[in-house]
What we know:
Residues 145-295 form the Uracil-DNA glycosylase-like domain. Residues 56-105 are annotated as: Disordered. It is an enzyme of class 3 (hydrolase). It holds the Pfam family UDG. The chain is of the alpha/beta class. The protein has 2 domains: 2-76, no CATH class; 104-302, 3-Layer(aba) Sandwich (Uracil-DNA Glycosylase, subunit E), CATH 3.40.470.10. It is built from 13 helices and 6 strands. The chain has a 6-stranded mixed β-sheet with strand order 1-3-2-4-6-5, sandwiched between helices. A hairpin with a 4-residue loop joins strand 5 (259-263) and strand 6 (268-274). The chain is globular, with a radius of gyration of 23 Å. It starts with 17 loop residues before the first helix and ends with a helix. It binds uracil.
Amino acid sequence: xxxxxxxxxxxxxxxxxxxxxxxxxxxxxxxxxxxxxxxxxxxxxxxxxxxxxxxxxxxxxxxxxxxxxxxxxxxxxxxxxxxxxxxxxxxxxxxxxxxxxxxxxxxxxxxxxxxxxxxxxxxxxxxxxxxxxxxxxxxxxxxxxxxxxxxxxxxxxxxxxxxxxxxxxxxxxxxxxxxxxxxxxxxxxxxxxxxxxxxxxxxxxxxxxxxxxxxxxxxxxxxxxxxxxxxxxxxxxxxxxxxxxxxxxxxxxxxxxxxxxxxxxxxxxxxxxxxxxxxxxxxxxxxxxxxxxxxxxxxxxxxx
Length: 304
Ligand code: URA
């Protein structure tokens, strides 16, 4: 028997049922909705319709897939009633309704032009903040540009921010970031002597893998970021980063631990792929090989 949170309807026609609420919560978590941005619900569908200049009557209607527990008017044959709608609370976070993003190939072209125009890392970050070509920007909380020392000789690049990074705005601050810090500390490196970024600087919803289109759109920015930071060594954390930046085609287990040349656009530097710390958290057996990679990085760092 399920236990109820309340015996009576709560005014929204909803009899709170603990199991049903748990199911809804689980559904949201699986869909990547794992952070509450505000205290009150805000109808972004109505906002984006309004932003696109839809007539008020249309903007005020419930989107069909969002209609509440009751069957839709169309389905029930009843006369359509405008849905009850709470105005956005004054303290609701300002989320700009996304204008239709350009097609991916146009966005990638715009990204190339924008990235190439950045004279330094601050300008690149500012360009990314105003870049509208990547749809992930509209689902992420904020841009996750970089952490560490941009003047460091070592640069590490992961795949994309996760939940903790999305909240803090810095790469590798969650569980895998803590492991990365321990791996670096083992060879005497911390965030004052390393510069850390991701191929994709916005969190994909639910930590899903970025699509090839999203990666292609973000690629010119990370390439330019590497060129402007101008490290002596580049380390790709995980297969997706290695495949995207180093063009390695084999899986990370084969690709890791081998130095390859990376052309920054200004010069050629040595680059190495190693396991992503998130993989090591799931697969502790990989730590032995990751340790070898860390020693290889340490040796290279002391070469010049
Ligand atoms: N995984 C990544 O690839 N990057 C982060 O910043 C965090 C987790």
